[in-house]
Specification:
Layout: E1 6-7, H1 9-17, E2 25-27, E3 34-39, E4 43-47, H2 57-68, H3 70-81, E5 84-85, E6 90-91, H4 102-105, E7 107-113, E8 138-145, E9 148-155, E10 160-168
Parallel strand pairs: 1-3, 4-7
Antiparallel strand pairs: 2-3, 3-4, 5-6, 7-8, 8-9, 9-10
Helix pairs in contact: 1-2
C-alpha cells in the first residue's frame, strides 16, 4: 500500500461531496494515472485512467453514489459468492456451498472505478445480468479468499451485480 492515510467511509463521502479530492494519493498501479485511498473496513478505493490528477465530476458523483450504497452492493456480492463451490471450482446457484458467514470467508479488498478488462479469470465467469455498456457504466469490488480473489463487477447506473470472475492470486 503506497498511500499513507486511512479514512473512514463517511469521511471519504464527506470530502467527495465537498469537492475535495486532495486526500487521494495519485500514482499508477492499475492504469496510467490512478487516484487511491485506503478506507477503513472497505479496503482500497481506486479511480483509474485519470488525466493530470483530475477526477471528473461525473466520476465523483458515481463514486459517491456507490459508497453511499456500499452495503447494498456488498449484500448482492455476498449473496452470490456463497454459491462458489470451492471443491469443484464452479458456481452452483442452486445451493449455498458453505455455512460460514460470507463476510468471514471473503475479505473486502478493493473498490475500483474507471478500468475494464484488467483482471484474468482462471475459472468459469458467472454473469447473472446483462453486460454494462462501457467502463463508465461499471465498477468492481474485489474480495480475497486465499488462494483466490473474486472480482465482482457491477453496473454503475443501478448498482446491480453483473459478473464475478474468480482468479488465482
Amino acid at each position: 500500500m503506497l498511500y499513507h492515510l486511512q479514512f473512514d467511509l463517511d469521511e471519504v463521502i464527506f470530502y467527495l461531496k465537498d469537492g475535495d479530492c486532495s486526500f487521494f494519493d495519485y500514482y499508477s498501479e492499475y492504469s496510467k494515472n490512478d487516484a487511491a485511498v485506503y478506507i477503513k473496513g472497505a479496503g482500497s478505493l481506486y479511480i483509474c485512467n485519470l488525466s493530470e490528477d483530475d477526477i471528473p465530476e461525473e466520476t465523483v458523483r458515481r463514486v459517491i453514489d456507490v459508497l453511499e450504497h456500499l452495503d447494498e452492493c456488498l449484500k448482492q456480492a455476498y449473496d452470490t459468492l456463497v454459491h462458489w463451490d470451492f471443491d469443484h471450482h464452479t458456481w452452483d446457484s442452486k445451493r449455498k456451498c458453505f455455512k460460514e458467514d460470507p463476510k468471514e470467508v471473503f475479505e473486502l479488498d478493493e473498490i475500483l472505478f474507471g478500468s475494464d478488462g484488467w483482471t484474468s479469470c482462471d475459472f468459469q465467469k458467472y454473469c447473472p445480468d446483462p453486460k454494462p455498456q462501457s467502463v463508465d457504466d461499471s465498477f468492481w469490488i474485489k474480495f480475497r479468499c486465499d488462494p483466490l480473489e473474486f472480482s465482482v463487477q457491477f453496473r454503475s447506473r443501478d448498482r446491480r451485480l453483473y459478473s464475478i470472475q474468480p482468479y488465482i492470486l
